[in-house]
Amino acid sequence: MIYSLRHLTTYRYARTVNYARCNLRLRPRDGDGQQVLASTITVTPVPKGRGTRDEYFGPQALTLIIDQPHKVFSVEATSRVIVERPALPDPESGPSWEAVREAALALPTLDAASPAHFLFPSRRVPLMAEVTDYARRSFPPGRSAYGGAFDLMNRIRSDFRFDAKATTVSTPLAKSFELKAGVCQDFAHVMIAGLRGLGLPAAYVSGYLRTRPPPGQARLRGADASHAWVSLWCGNGWHDGAGQGGWFGLDPTNACGVRDDHIELTSGRDYGDVTPIDGIVSSPGGQKLKVEVDVVPDDEDMV
Amino acid sequence: MTSGGALAYDWPADVPSPDPVRGWIDGYERRPGVFDEFIDANGFTRGAWPRFLQRFGQIGEREVMARFLSGERHIHDAGISYRVYGDQREHAWPLGPLPLIIDGRDWAELAAGIIQRAGLMERIVADIYGPGRLISEGLLPAPAVAGSPEFLRPVHGIAPPGGRHLQLYAADVGRGPDGRWRVLADRTQAPSGLGFALENRMVLARAYPDLISDLHVERLPGFFQSLREGITAACERSDPRICLLTSGPYSSTYVEQAALARYLGFLLVEGDDLVVQDGLLHVRTVAGLKRADALWRRIDADYLDPMELRSESRLGVPGILDVLRRGGVVIGNMPGSGVLESGALSPYLPRIAERLLGESLRLSDPPTWWCGDPESLAHVRANLDRMTLRPAATPVRGPERDAILGPHALDAARERAIAALDDRPFDWVGQETGPLSTMPAWFEGRLVPRPFVMRVFATATSDGWRVMPTAFCRTAEQEGVDPTVMRAGIRSADVWVVSDQPVETPPLLNTITPKIRRIAGHLPSRAADNLFWLGRYLERAEGVIRLVQTHLGRLAGTLASDTGSDVGTPTSLRIRALLEEWGSVDEPDLPTAALAREALCDREQHGSALSHVLSARRSASTLRERLPVEAWRALTELQDLLDFDDSRVPSEAQLFGRAERALGHLSALSGLSHENMNHSAGWRFFDMGRRIERGVNTSSFALRFAGDQAGAEDLGVMLALCDSQIAYGARYLTGVSLPAVRDMALLDPFNPRSVAFQVEEIVRHLDTLPALRADGVPEPHRRAALRLAGTFATADATDLNAGQLAGFEDELEDLATLIAGRYFPGNADALRPEKLTGLA
């Protein structure tokens, strides 16, 4: 499937900002079943300096310095991406989770895709005994790692309530787990915490999801959203289809494996590694944020 | 730290014992099975101990005590202190009277091991952030690195400017039962303790000056010179600006950092003082942005750059990693060096040493197993009863960072650790730790063995590593306390490395003549701000104290006054009203003694003299490296004088005495600043702060006590407040006259208390401070000062009116605002950065 993506972010500041420095992670990943045909990022006001920086896990980040006074800052990222991932494995297939855990420890590499990076708690994914125990119920001895994770994904989908008002971008994991509510970011963090608590390597992926307008209706402009899901390392070389390098995408918000409806931007240990836009501004006032996303498949029209 | 009896001397009365040393040796109960520094397994004393104790005994117990107490007083007065994690108070530094004495040959072996290990650590960290061969060749498990919170991925691939990751390496060492040194922990992040070791030596050098030279104790200056030269040599420019980056006065080791900055001549900066511009790092100074060539980092690396590391950090400098990547700044130690502190590295070091150095490791670790390895896990499980479980590389922060779950810690925490081996064995290492070796400590008049650890430091120089010939040693005051973490119940000790021959003393004259300069570098804006406010607070305190003293003195009849002791005279009501206006008292009609006590000593009153002194101390605490030690001492004494806790209200005479002594301390501080502080920019800001405030105070006094309707009593008070009675009496024989008093208090350019004098001094200071404009046109703050000086120079005392008096105060405050806007942080381009929120 070929997608046209548009991601517009607008910050409106209460007071004039004289200086800003930021990182943009808005260029989709090339490879692993994706091919980026075109990608542009437009920023206003025009930055003084614009550079790129290699990032450990994801594609290059775009770095900006803006030193002219402004009250509105906007970033529009557009791209065209082909997504063509192979078929997903059968849920109960693959090596046992105990074997995966041992294999992950023994791999002699610290490449970006090495499972060793994704075994440990990270800033936004602390390990909590309650979450580990919640996950443990999906992992009886000997079950395949992929199967256990698939089950955990389904349980999160049914036990947790999708509620955009329940949490914010900075709600700690303990809180969303207690509420059993939140958005994709919260579900992904909870699932990752559970998997890592058992010693399994799990990553956080940011991107977009294809949505389907109600039958007979056209897509509304700006109505899509950015999305996040989980990727689990289940061992190398046991499946010919998806999961190159051993990584398999699982979406706890929608209880499905990751194939052609998911477009990946970048992945990391948690949201902190993949934040689409972060940085600092020198301003004493507050800010308002507005985000518009369009994910338009080539075979579809938009209003 | 442990109140009054921190050092438990219990010296017997001055009865000379025939041979105290014999008694100390015989009374020493060394622990079986543990190496002791003083007495060997056969009961013989080791090395230089007898020589030391002989002299220690000869000096005489009283003398030793007196000398040491003077050293301890130095510790208190100089404010040598540390903070316990999570505690905002500073604790006085507990230092034991006995040094740890180590034989030179024994030390040389340890030093050789430290040098080897420092070199090995450099090679390992360079590989981890570079080619990664140790991992690909299977010499180091990937998770042992990946799990460390100090494995900073953004640093991967950055070649360290200057060529090395580690400028300073430290190891915590202790001896095994066989007497061989062992490394208990590597310190590579930002090792602390160097400054404390230096301070400890300074105290003991005061206490035993003759002993240090007679015993040929190795000296320290050479090491610090090497450290300085090592950092300098790594820089691009030949005359680099080197900064010590601190997290500020709330850091547990801030005092040490300030002491080191002062000793080494580095600029002590906080993140806010630094800014990245055009790809380079700069310090914000009173002369504009100046390039910073090197940073000695004393904040954890994760906080260094909110753009790439911990995004909520406000301690670092946005964009600094980018500067590092371009080679624009040297940072010692490189961010990410802390990964070497990971406990999971220990078991792999011997093989890595063979591989990288082709040598076997000279200093071994206690036997350690990383439980991420299945065989090691099995071994640890099988031998749990003698294993200490430690976090391997997992992010364990805060007070639990050094959690040690020893075999005897059979509590819930250890149970949890054992259970955690099931789910996440790779978070743990098992270690066979023996008991710590012991050294003698002085306890109730005898020598007792106490476990100790010693932090040994090495610095990289252009010719390799150099080890500091002393260490930062910590002992437990009581049995059963673990000295590996600095906390209550831990005492430190100086370490003396004694040589057979006289030691090399540093040459007095450097053979290379440096470029002559008269300023020590540009003053950071923040330091200027704090110095300015230090001056203002001290002068504010002085204003309150003078007002109180005048009130008390007037009542006691020491002032020319014909109204006796009636509290209700108009003048006295005016004094009380001003105290209330200043926030020094709540109620202006308290009895005189209660009023005076509240205005002087009440912490709750934001305008009391004590509150101003406390504020001054807070400002001064960020300026430790810039103030003479005596100034800190005078400030401490001033605080002690005002901060007395006595439920009874002292008599007026007692309070008068206190006020008088407080003024004495304040003038001592003035004298010190004039005579002992280099009259460079820092001093000028301090002095300007005092002058602004004194001008404001005097104007404010004049408005009340030299107004258009002022009577004789008012004018007498006015002269007293300006400390000008004697000068007035000598100049005028006719008694007080309003224009004459106004002239003396406000306009007289020869009276160091007049407002005109303050303004003239401020103009002089501003003339010498750096200008931002090169075209010679005065900047706004200077124009304002010149205008004010002109007003005073041309005013005529007989024409002045109350309206003008009121204006002076405002104009001085406006001038202060302009000075702040020009020199201090907080103006538009120096706003604290705010976080740009991310997106969901």
Automatic annotation (TrEMBL), chain A:
UniProt entry tagged with the keyword ATP-binding: no
Pfam family, one: Transglut_core
Domain Transglutaminase-like: 176-254
Top-rank lineage group of the source organism: Bacteria
Assigned keywords, A-Z: Hydrolase, Protease
Record carries keyword Protease: yes
GO biological process: proteolysis
GO molecular function: peptidase activity
InterPro entries: Bac_transglu_N (IPR013589), Papain-like_cys_pep_sf (IPR038765), Transglutaminase-like (IPR002931)
Identification of the protein by name: Transglutaminase-like putative cysteine protease
Species of the source: Methylobacterium brachythecii
TrEMBL record, chain B:
Gene3D superfamilies (alphabetical): 3.30.1490.270, 3.40.50.11290
Highest taxon, organism lineage: Bacteria
Residue intervals of the Circularly permuted ATP-grasp type domain: 99-476
InterPro entries listed in its UniProt record: ATP-dep_Glu-Cys_Ligase-2, CP_ATPgrasp_2, DUF403
Domain DUF403 intervals: 523-824
Identification of the protein by name: Putative circularly permuted ATP-grasp superfamily protein/putative alpha-E superfamily protein
